[in-house]
């Protein structure tokens, strides 16, 4: 307890100073006492000599009414006046055992003061315990606090610790006996941040508060992140007497922050790498003039990135049921003939699984990589920490699989897998576009005649159910993915349309027109229609004829197209299907002059004349300055005859356009 005594040299001061539970400060002047009240828990006024205890008591009460004050005097009048002035305790100077009695009154006055609020401190229930219990409780609270607490002596060289709590022992592994008397720097090590250490040293030298986070080491040598908060404690003279420190283990938070930072940097690196990769692949896909260029270019683009050691692209070879390499890139000494994957293996390889499922497949675990390396003597196993098999999928067609061998497992993280899937789709789209373009540009085509009784084809089932014959008149592909298919039927149109309602993938059926026993029917087909599926592979339907549930389909595809792949595609989707004939034929050049010549060959002289007269005279303009009667008269024929010629010419012209 801090006791401020005002006395003119009374011997009772020596008795108080011997009490180890008291920290005594003695002054002889009242003015000195008034300036030090903030550092006092109790004031003792010893009357006599130059000290007027009652006058000083009155001044104290005017300043701090609740401060405990004990007056010692040998004059009864002083005692009476002191009580009137609000003294806390009074001790006669001539009382037996006056030193013990004075000590008891000081303790009693302080205890009484803790049970009531003061101007300096907020009232707290802990104060009801009394001074001794309050101090003991506070000491236990510090000892059992969940953070490490240290007190260092600022007046001794190197600021040694004079107190540590139990949590500091648990946090660091050091016992009180081992570290009390030392500076706390023994917790620092080789990876402790020198800037944080310097910040602590500077604050301590300046007597200021400081807070730092640095790597410390336990007694076992285990590093941990420690948040250190240091605050100065000032003595009664205003100088720094001690430093109190708080140590908090923040290892989990710092590790989480560092993990977030590592992921941020990894993501930035990934974005830079992906940006370059996407640019290179896009440039390759846009600038390539053929499939070989696309396949080689995509492989080259990947191995140009540091994280990929090798890449190869395999396409299905139906004659051997394998994925056979058509392109590769990287430094490994391996020929394309040695790069192939068995599609029929009981334990399918990674690329085979990607091809069959149409989904990206990735392997990064060491055991699986080692097993793959054992079956692939050309693979540089030590350099590979991940393999990705990227299917090249467009619609329902898988053109092949791109196999990538990464030098970093992190290169195949979740972000990069999304990009790999996108590149796979883009590559497949480019291959499909090239295949379609080849179909349009080639002069040599292969024609396949297919016969099927498969009920999965709605026109086969409609013919079987209704007994009608159906003839394919073409298709129109719509932006929403549906296809309009037109069929000429010789059966009951209403019966055919009623039967079509049972198919969930036929959104609607409609009678376009009916003439005698012939009807033109339109079917809106959703999902994956046969024309759309074939069109994805650059295959055109030239004709479909269905009679009594048996359909003959005539297909046209580029001569270098994969006939086996088309056959497998059809047989897989429609098992009751077989190729009955295939042949090659030359397709005439499709120039503007050739098209005009073809149309003119189809038209009779009268039809061509009727068409030309209608065009040049403005018959097709919105205001139609000429009538059919005038045009018929110019040809010296009747109006009805003129319109017959004109309709016939228009039909042949439109037919030639849609047959292109």
Automatic annotation (TrEMBL):
<dbReference type="InterPro" id="IPR035965">
    <property type="entry name" value="PAS-like_dom_sf"/>
</dbReference>
<dbReference type="InterPro" id="IPR000014">
    <property type="entry name" value="PAS"/>
</dbReference>
<dbReference type="InterPro" id="IPR029016">
    <property type="entry name" value="GAF-like_dom_sf"/>
</dbReference>
<keyword id="KW-0288">FMN</keyword>
<keyword id="KW-0805">Transcription regulation</keyword>
<dbReference type="InterPro" id="IPR031803">
    <property type="entry name" value="BAT_GAF/HTH-assoc"/>
</dbReference>
<dbReference type="InterPro" id="IPR000700">
    <property type="entry name" value="PAS-assoc_C"/>
</dbReference>
<feature type="domain" description="PAS">
    <location>
        <begin position="134"/>
        <end position="207"/>
    </location>
</feature>
<dbReference type="Pfam" id="PF13185">
    <property type="entry name" value="GAF_2"/>
</dbReference>
<keyword id="KW-0804">Transcription</keyword>
<protein>
    <submittedName>
        <fullName>Bacterio-opsin activator domain-containing protein</fullName>
    </submittedName>
</protein>
<dbReference type="InterPro" id="IPR003018">
    <property type="entry name" value="GAF"/>
</dbReference>
<dbReference type="Pfam" id="PF13426">
    <property type="entry name" value="PAS_9"/>
</dbReference>
<dbReference type="InterPro" id="IPR001610">
    <property type="entry name" value="PAC"/>
</dbReference>
<keyword id="KW-0285">Flavoprotein</keyword>
<dbReference type="Pfam" id="PF04967">
    <property type="entry name" value="HTH_10"/>
</dbReference>
<feature type="domain" description="PAC">
    <location>
        <begin position="208"/>
        <end position="262"/>
    </location>
</feature>
<dbReference type="InterPro" id="IPR007050">
    <property type="entry name" value="HTH_bacterioopsin"/>
</dbReference>
<keyword id="KW-0157">Chromophore</keyword>
<dbReference type="Pfam" id="PF15915">
    <property type="entry name" value="BAT"/>
</dbReference>
């Amino acid at each position: 307890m801090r006791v401020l005594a005002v006395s003119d040299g009374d011997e009772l001061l020596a008795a108080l100073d011997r009490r180890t539970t008291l920290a005594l400060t003695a002054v002889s002047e009242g003015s000195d006492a008034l300036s030090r009240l903030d550092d006092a828990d109790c004031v003792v006024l010893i009357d006599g000599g130059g000290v007027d205890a009652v006058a000083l008591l009155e001044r104290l009460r005017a300043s701090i009414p609740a401060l405990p004050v004990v007056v010692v005097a040998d004059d009864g009048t002083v005692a009476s006046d002191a009580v009137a002035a609000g003294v806390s305790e009074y001790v006669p100077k001539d009382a037996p055992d006056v030193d013990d009695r004075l000590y008891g009154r000081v303790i009693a006055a302080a205890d009484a003061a803790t049970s009531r609020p003061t101007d300096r401190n907020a009232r707290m229930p802990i104060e009801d315990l009394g001074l001794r219990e309050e101090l003991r409780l506070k000491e236990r609270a510090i000892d059992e606090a969940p953070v490490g607490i240290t007190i260092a002596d600022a007046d001794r060289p190197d600021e040694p610790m004079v107190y540590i709590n139990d949590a500091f022992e648990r946090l660091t592994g050091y016992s009180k006996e081992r570290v009390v008397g030392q500076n706390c720097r023994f917790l620092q090590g080789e990876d402790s941040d020198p800037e944080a250490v310097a910040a602590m040293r500077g604050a301590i030298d300046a007597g200021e508060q400081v807070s730092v986070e640095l790597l410390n080491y336990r007694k076992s040598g285990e590093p941990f992140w420690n948040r250190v908060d240091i605050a100065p404690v000032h003595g009664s003279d205003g100088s720094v007497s001690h430093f109190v420190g708080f140590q908090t283990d923040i290892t989990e938070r710092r590790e989480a922050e560092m993990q977030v930072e590592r992921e941020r940097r990894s993501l930035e690196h990934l974005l830079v790498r992906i940006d370059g990769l996407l640019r290179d692949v896009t440039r390759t896909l846009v600038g390539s003039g053929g499939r070989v260029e696309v396949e080689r270019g995509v492989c080259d683009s990947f191995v140009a990135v540091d994280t990929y050691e090798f890449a190869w692209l395999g396409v299905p070879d139906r004659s051997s049921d394998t994925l056979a390499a058509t392109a590769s890139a990287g430094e490994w000494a391996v020929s394309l003939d040695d790069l192939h994957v068995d599609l029929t293996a009981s334990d399918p390889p990674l690329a085979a699984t990607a091809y069959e499922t149409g989904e990206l497949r990735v392997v990064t675990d060491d055991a699986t990589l080692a097993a793959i390396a054992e079956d692939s003597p050309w693979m540089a196993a030590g350099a590979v920490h991940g393999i990705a098999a990227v299917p090249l999928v467009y619609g329902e067609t898988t053109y092949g699989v791109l196999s990538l061998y990464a030098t970093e497992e992190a290169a195949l993280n979740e972000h990069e897998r999304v990009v790999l899937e996108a590149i796979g789709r883009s590559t497949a789209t480019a291959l499909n576009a090239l295949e379609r373009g080849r179909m349009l540009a080639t002069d040599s085509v292969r024609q396949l005649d297919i016969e099927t009784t498969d009920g999965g084809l709605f026109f086969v089932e409609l013919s079987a159910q209704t007994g009608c014959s159906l003839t394919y008149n073409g298709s129109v592909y719509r932006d929403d993915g549906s296809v309009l298919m037109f069929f000429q039927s010789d059966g009951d149109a209403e019966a055919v349309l009623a039967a079509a309602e049972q198919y969930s993938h036929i959104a609607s059926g409609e009678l376009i027109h009916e003439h005698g026993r012939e009807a033109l029917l339109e079917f809106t087909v959703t999902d994956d229609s046969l024309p759309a599926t074939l069109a994805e592979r650059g295959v055109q339907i030239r004709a479909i004829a269905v009679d009594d549930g048996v359909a003959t389909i005539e297909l046209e595809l580029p001569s270098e197209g994969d006939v086996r792949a088309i056959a497998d595609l059809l047989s897989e989707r429609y098992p009751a299907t077989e190729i009955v004939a295939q042949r090659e034929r030359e397709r005439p050049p499709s120039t503007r002059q050739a098209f005009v010549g073809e149309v003119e060959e189809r038209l009779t002289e009268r039809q061509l004349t009727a068409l030309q007269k209608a065009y040049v005279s403005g018959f097709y303009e919105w205001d139609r300055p000429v009538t059919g009667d005038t045009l018929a008269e110019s040809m010296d024929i009747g109006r009805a005859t003129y319109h017959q010629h004109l309709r016939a010419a228009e039909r042949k012209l439109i037919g030639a356009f849609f047959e292109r």
